[in-house]
Automatic annotation (TrEMBL):
It comes from Rhizobium jaguaris. Mg(2+) binds at D49, H252, H254, N288. Its main location: cytoplasm. It is found in: Cytoplasm. Belongs to the alpha-IPM synthase/homocitrate synthase family. LeuA type 2 subfamily. Pfam families: HMGL-like, IPMS_D2, LeuA_dimer. GO terms for biological process: L-leucine biosynthetic process. The gene is leuA. This is 2-isopropylmalate synthase. It is an enzyme of class 2 (transferase).
Length: 570
């Protein structure tokens, strides 16, 4: 069978065209039982690996804006570019050193290939920098040895060793003060014993010390296997590298299989000390590991991520400006929709969870479907619940409460949900919070075009029945003033009896509640009355500065709705 022979489904035969990644022989692996208990050393590679993958690489302004953000977030190591590759990157390195006000505890890092002319230029770019990191690399993978460099392992090792010698010599001649990082690039395509041999040869040249540790960066340049494999590789390297105590083992995961974050997390458990990545995962192909997601994953496990992500909107804005790329709506922690529930059962659980959290007043965050409090990253609760045809009464109740201060009684939630469901089904799209509120007010309170209006009332003791009150009220019926009268044990009872007699429809009050209102200029209270009538039960609502008037308006509201139903039935 040739590599292009097709399976019945149309794709080539997988087993013919692709090979499974081999297992790592480390049966006594320890990482599966470890947990991440502290933040790694973070290194941002937004300005280099991120930049080299952009359609239009960053000019100075875009780099500078990103650089300030990275410093403000607390990155202590920032790879600012590849100064020997372009004038823009060279000039940016000079700007950082001469005008960048780089804090003393922040190291500038630059990348360079193991090529003498590029190394020389890199040192020119770094002249005067405070403890910069010279990051040199060459590809060590079996494939690149064969097809790119046409060299055997010995030849590839020589490239790395020669560069290490040149770099350490130049640093010594410049009076020291440099730090070094070596990457066996395409590490995940390199046999472990080869990667080890080459790294050990570099370590031998650099001779790291406790005061100047060498960063050995083990990149998943292309993510080729499941995350456990990367963890195995890192644990194996950590065990076998020479002079481990004077090394900082660094990860540089890419995301080709969509598991870059998982790979980085498992590899940290496997003993790595440092992570190189980018904000929200920009970078070659499917991107570098997303350090914001990694950091916030730690945060939600109770671990201080040592990166300040409290203003995620600024991070998003700078990301979009500097990279000229948009962030997806479902992107973890930052996407526009990641704190929003449309579906009814999620909304109900969030609504109840938020209420329970308020009552419990306990510092531990526990709200269903929200793994993080949106406010911790500078987002608000505004968008937590949005309404469409998938939504339920809990969500509608949340919106009415949160946005407009209306506490709909449970049965009214059920009733109003049907109304909203009808609209969302008809329109087939999201119903904004404002419309949900305005529809409620029109349906239950304003009732433009309604037949009956409440005008006024007074009550007095019933001369014929002890303990009873007479309610004498003024209403309008299609604009005509009418006086109605009824008896009951209070104004509500008396008024509904009066209205029942007047309309010839027996009605009674099943449930009543009211609360004060903050929303709206003159309103001070809203009352909800559930009314039963021969066809069933329904609610009315009234808003008035006088609580009794609000209740009587609510009865009129319910009566108008009964009249409507009867009119529709003919
Ligand atoms: C996985 C990564 O992300 S690594 C980072 C990669 N980043 C970039 O490529 C962005 C910046 N790069 C550039 O602007 C350019 O590639 C430059 C300026 C560095 C070099 O440009 P050029 O010399 O014109 O060309 P090019 O990149 O094609 O050079 C490839 C040559 O370098 C060699 N080479 C590639 N990487 C390395 C390395 N790390 N160490 C030593 N030699 C290397 C190749 O084998 C090839 O050699 P050949 O000319 O004998 O065939
Ligand atoms: C230079 C190296 C670290 C790199 O960018 C990669 O392997 O992806």
């Amino acid at each position: 069978m040739d590599a292009n022979s097709h399976s019945p489904k149309g794709m080539p035969e997988a087993a013919v065209k692709y090979r499974a990644y081999p297992q790592i022989n480390i049966p006594d692996r320890t990482w599966p039982s470890k947990t991440i208990t502290k933040a790694p050393i973070w290194c941002s590679v937004d300005l280099r690996d991120g930049n080299q993958a952009l359609v239009d690489p960053m000019g100075h302004d875009r780099k500078e804006r990103m650089f300030h953000l990275l410093v403000d977030m607390g990155f202590k190591e920032i790879e600012i570019g590849f100064p020997s590759a372009s004038q823009t990157d060279f000039d940016f390195a000079r700007w950082c050193i001469e005008h960048g006000s780089v804090p003393d505890d922040v190291s500038l890092q630059v990348l360079v290939q193991c090529r003498p002319e590029l190394i020389t230029r890199t040192f020119e770019a770094l002249d005067g920098a405070n403890k910069p990191i010279v990051h040199f690399y060459n590809s060590t993978s079996e494939l690149q040895r064969r097809v790119v460099f046409a060299k055997d392992v010995k030849g590839i090792k020589e490239i790395a060793v020669d560069a290490a010698k040149m770099i350490t010599d130049m640093a010594a001649k410049a009076g020291g003060g440099y730090r070094f990082e070596y990457s066996p690039e395409s590490f995940t395509g390199t046999e472990l014993d080869v990667a080890l041999e080459i790294c050990n040869a570099v370590i031998e040249v650099v001779k790291p010390t406790p005061d100047n540790k060498l960063i050995i960066n083990l990149p998943s340049t292309v993510e080729m296997a499941t995350p456990n494999i990367y963890a195995d590789q890192i644990e194996w390297m950590c065990r076998n590298l020479d002079n481990r105590e004077n090394l900082i083992i660094s990860l540089h995961p890419h995301n080709d299989r969509g598991t870059g974050i998982a790979a980085a997390e498992l590899a940290l458990m496997a003993g790595a000390d440092r992570v190189e990545g980018t904000l929200f995962g920009n970078g070659e192909r499917t991107g570098n590991v997303d350090v914001v997601t990694m950091a916030l994953n730690m945060f939600t496990q109770g671990v201080d991520p040592e990166l300040d992500c409290s203003n995620i909107e600024r991070m998003k804005e700078v990301f979009e400006y500097s990279n000229q790329m948009a962030i997806g709506e479902r992107h973890p922690y930052v996407g526009e929709l990641v704190y929003t529930a449309f579906s009814g059962s999620h909304q109900d659980a969030i609504n109840k969870g938020m209420k329970a959290a308020k009552v419990a007043n306990h510092p531990v965050w526990e709200v269903p479907y929200l793994p993080i409090d949106p406010q911790d990253v500078g987002r608000t609760y505004e968008a937590i619940i949005r309404i469409n045809s998938q939504s339920g009464k809990g969500g509608i109740a949340y919106i009415m409460q949160q946005d407009y201060g209306l506490n709909l009684p449970r049965n009214l939630q059920v009733e109003y949900r049907e109304e909203i469901q009808r609209i969302t089904d008809e329109e087939g799209k999201e119903l904004p919070s404002r419309r949900i509120y305005e529809h409620f007010i029109e349906r239950y309170v304003t009732q433009s075009g309604a037949r009956i209006r409440f005008v006024d009332h007074h009550t007095f003791a019933d001369p014929e029945h002890k303990g009873q009150r007479v309610v004498a009220a003024e209403i309008t019926d299609n604009g005509e003033v009418k006086r109605i009268e009824g008896r009951g044990n209070g104004p509500i009872d008396g008024f509904i009896n009066a209205l029942s007699i007047y309309l010839g429809i027996p009605m009674s009050v099943e449930d009543y509640s009211e609360h004060s209102l903050q929303h709206g200029s003159n309103a001070s209270a809203i009352s909800y009355v559930e009314t039963s009538y021969p066809g069933g039960k329904l609610f009315g609502a009234g808003i008035n500065t006088n609580i009794v008037a609000a209740s009587l308006e609510a009865i009129v509201s319910a009566a108008n709705r009964v009249l409507d139903i009867q009119a529709k039935k003919g």
